[in-house]
Amino acid sequence: MTTARRRGILAVITALVLLALGTGLGAAVSDALGIRTEPAEQMSPAAPTAPDIADPVAPPSLGAVRAPDSPRVEAAVDELRSAIDAASERRGSVTITVAVMEEESEPDDGEIPEPDGYRLTGDASALRIDADADAGAARALYELAVRVRAAAPLTDLIGEHAPSRLPFRMVDMGAVGVEPDPAAWEPGTDYSHASKAFAQVLLPEPPYIDEAALAEAFADFDEFVRHSLANGYNAVAFPGFIEFVAFDEVADGVVYTPGDAHRAQALALRDAFGPFWQHADELGMDVFLRTDMLTLTTPLEDYLVDTLGSLDTENPALWDVYAAGLDELYAAEPALDGILIRIGEAGEVYDVEGWDYYSQLAVRTPTAVRAMLDTLSAQAEASDREVIFRTWSVGVGAVGDMHTNPVSYEEVLGGIDSPALIVSTKYTLGDFYSWLPLNDTLEQGQQRRIVEFQSRREFENFGAFPNDLGREYQYALQTLLAANDRIEGVWVWTQDGGPWRAGPMTLYLKAGFWQLYELDTVVAAALARDPDTDVADVTAAWARQWFSDDPETVATIVDAMDQSREAIEQGLYIEQFADQRVFAIGLEPPPMMWIFEWDILTGDSAVLDVLYAIARDATGGDIDQAIAGGEEAVATVERMREAVAGTDAATWRDPALRDAFTGTLDYEADVLRLLAAYRAMILHQGEWHDTLSPDAYAAWDADRAAFEALAAAHLETYEGDIDYPAYNLTAAQLGVERAERDLLMSWLARILLALAIAWVVIGMLAARTSLVRRPGAAAARASWIASTRPWRARESTLGMLELDRWLLLIVPAALLVATRAVQTSFLSWTHLAVVFAAWAVFALVVRILVGRRSPWPVIAAVGGVIMLRCIVTLIALSLTGPGGYWFAFWTEPAFRTAYIAVAFALFVWVFVAAGWALAAQVRARRATGFVLAAIGAGLALPAVVVGAIGLERALTLWNDEMGLLPWGLARILGITTYLEIPPETPWIAAAVGGALVVVGLLLAMPWKRREDEASVPS
């Protein structure tokens, strides 16, 4: 067998191996993306019912009240008196006698507070409350106050009232201690999750507490606690834990050395907020400290690392330190009832600047969770307290799907049955979005369970839109209670969740139209007490309390709220996408991916292309069905607005609240019109990429014009408005800018493709025709031969004219530049800079190592393969431009695998061909060294630059220009955090590149004095 034949066979085998490896890589990429869907079982709440709205009844004046001398009962009497005093008129008078039958008893270990049943007897002039405990007496008085505010007769409550079905009813901290500063909300770009509660109270230096601000915060807290008690809640989650612990009981106080400011701060904060907790306890409100784990200070972290060797959360000894801190805290503050722990979110987005208290996502394995809960539950049992553990762990290590996966839940929590442990879980199978199934992990487990609800829905514009969740809450509780008798409570978020200052400045009880989402807080408590409560009656009572006594006006408001869910579900979501469970990158993306948390209208290809493909498949290709949902939502809101605006203004209790109601409906209608236009645009854009239909392109162009007009009007109307803030349209506008270039880019790609193919064809035919004598033909011939038979690269370049030699370099380089520029729509100079810097360094190192020898053989080989590689890319770009390229990548697995296989094979063949071409000059070993050194340098230099800039910053800049992943990802979660890319990755790449350089240079050195005598200079 001749040498040429052996080389040809080896080249074919190499190409097949590279294609096989590329196919495997393509399959691995598809597996890593893991894009798939499965049907989702939707919740099915009952249909709305019209309440029986009677004429308003004026309350009686409150006469003598004979009640036990108890702060809890006195607070309830105050609420009743306040409700009566607020009424526009009063008729008659009523006396009230309260009798508590037995002394309150301490609850058994692991039991939730005493029952709150009561009996009401008497008549309109004299009522008597009989209860077994203060809790029942207070409940009766609060429910009488609710009747007063609902303009209903007090005597309707006469009779027996069983204890609440769910005895534990907790709220967050509302907006207590949060300053309503318009300047902080106006930019709308602060996506921090830190509430900055008590920021005015805390001082960085001794005495650490501003006493005047503390007094204001106490009044704030008192108002919130009294209001929450009146709404039916009996526990509060107070932020903080590590801030109040001095760690004096840990190893003789070596966590904080003498004089450490952390200890002084902890004692000062404990002294400041201890009276808050004691006050809440006296009024009948349990207090749980709410914290992320791990929660740290710098000295505490140093102590744990020095003592244990690392922050090993699987080591029970680490948790002994926190247990000791709890022992200390409970001994000092007996009003505290326990601790509430979250492990699924932490980091800078929750930290407060200037304070050395921070958190880490460090509890990431079932072993770590169990070590934590075993230790802290034992501590709680010994101290007669409780530990509430949240299953919110989405995406965090091996426990990342514990919140939604029954198997993972059992793996993490199975067998942990401490009576002091309560497990808290969101009622939705994921975060607080619509269209999600009921969370079936709440139907399992031997632990005590509570269900989480959110009133001010963060993903549905922070409660700025009417959003009556009552029927959904009722369905959830009724279904879950039928399945699991271990559920004993709820936790309702009245304010918290998401970034505090990136939406409307609605602060519970103090700023904005907070009364709108107060409905969900009230109805959740009512359902916790009695899951069979008529939610329409609760809604009517809410409307009467805040807006009007007039039956017609109340009926109109109730009807509008009944329609509110349809507007939200159809306007903020694309049903055909949202009603399925979607999986990608090992996670379960939420059903509202086109609006990225929380107000960012996304413009990235990954989300929008996949969204279109799922909607297409769900509708059999009739995407007009998906588009129609947006139009229906707009029509629904317009009906709501017309009805509310049509009520008699004179019947409203407060003209400002009527203006707020109509204003929020105007705002919602504007937003939904904008979203409807954007929905039509992105779906028609996907249809064009999918079908190449000119009609789809024309529809997209018309939708684009409509969207741009609505976007301009939306920004002009609402930008800077702290009550109705404009959506963040930056990502959407970047997406439009890229889409507008797709058609032009496709034509440029076709032109470049034709020129590139012509160059290759000329090279293939030049040796057999008179073309070889034409300028450039010899260069094309050399390029073709060297790229396909690199062992002939040297002979193919012999005797070439100077022009042909330079064309060997210029033509491939120019095509590479043009192809990458078209691929990025001339918008990503970052991408171009990185690509060209890497190739330039590669070429420079090869040229230096070649030295006196001719560089043209390797230039011909590398340039020829680059031509072929560019042709592959240009074929993909020539259909509908870069948008179509990425559409196929995200949505067509077969195309993705085939493209990656060929592209990868050609990419690696560049270096194989380079080495083969050089081997004719310096033999195989040294040629391999040349190529490895060049590859290492080409990798190391860009990696060092990226590392110096910062990986997150570099990826953010690149993604902003390319538009592949959600623009908001970097602003809120961080690309590296979300994709779990180690921040040290560029330095690792640089080290690998450096190692390749060293190995390459060692191989490139002549090991014998005469080894390289066969080399021929140019």
UniProtKB/TrEMBL annotation:
Residues 45-56 have a biased composition (Low complexity). The lineage of its organism: Bacteria, Bacillati, Actinomycetota, Actinomycetes, Micrococcales. Residues 40-69 are annotated as: Disordered. It comes from Microbacterium gallinarum. InterPro entries: GH. The chain crosses the membrane at residues 747-767, 806-823, 829-850, 857-877, 897-918, 930-951, 987-1005. Keywords: Membrane, Transmembrane, Transmembrane helix. It comes from the Bacteria. This is Glycosyl hydrolase family 67 C-terminal domain-containing protein.
